[in-house]
């Protein structure tokens, strides 16, 4: 099995499509969280190798989730339609994957954010 990925996304269709892509790439989904509070609950259960964070979650932003992941040493990738500008000058050097993205782009982002820094599970080669 590949990585165990947390998907933080408030648009259910996008979340389900992302889940499908992850499974096609050989990864598991630790959970889908449409809000900061649900993401925090999933993080508390543990077992997450990496997270994909949409920046805008309705009326809130995912920055508190990013801060918690950073504190715990769990890598994360922002997924957004706003590009790096959506980060509002925060999290310099973090990967931003523009929506819509292809499976190859997601695979490359996962590969680039997990190795050699330490995601436990191997990222499969396509």
Task: Tell me what you see in this structure.
With 126 residues, the chain is α/β, with parallel strands linked by helices. Among the domains are: 10-46, no CATH class; 79-116, no CATH class. It has helices spanning 12-24, 36-45, 63-72, 103-114; strands at 4-8, 28-33, 50-54, 56-57, 60-61, 76-80, 96-98. Helix 2 (36-45) packs parallel to helix 3 (63-72). The relative contact order is 0.19.
Number of strands: 7
The residue-averaged pLDDT reads 88
Largest sheet: 5 strands, parallel
Helix share of residues?
A: 25-40%
- Quaternary organisation of the protein chains: single chain
Question: Which percent band covers the strand fraction?
Answer: 15-25%
For the largest sheet, list the strands in their spatial order.
2-1-3-6-7
| H/E series | EHEHEEEHEEH
The low-pLDDT segments are: 121-126
Number of contiguous helices: 4
Structural class given helices, strands, pairing? alpha/beta
**Which value, in Å, is the CA radius of gyration?**
13 Å
Shape type? globular
The CA-CA distance between the termini, in Å, is 14 Å
């Amino acid at each position: 099995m590949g990585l165990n990925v947390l998907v933080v996304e408030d648009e259910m269709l996008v979340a389900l499509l992302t889940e499908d892509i992850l499974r096609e790439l050989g990864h598991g989904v630790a959970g889908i969280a449409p809000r900061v509070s649900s993401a925090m609950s999933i993080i508390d259960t543990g077992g997450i190798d990496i997270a994909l964070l949409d920046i805008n979650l309705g009326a809130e932003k995912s920055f508190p989730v990013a801060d918690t992941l950073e504190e715990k040493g769990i890598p994360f990738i922002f997924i957004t339609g706003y590009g790096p500008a959506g980060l509002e000058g925060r999290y310099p050097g973090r990967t931003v994957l523009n929506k819509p993205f292809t499976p190859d782009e997601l695979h490359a982002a996962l590969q680039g954010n997990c190795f050699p820094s330490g995601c436990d599970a191997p990222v499969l080669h396509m």
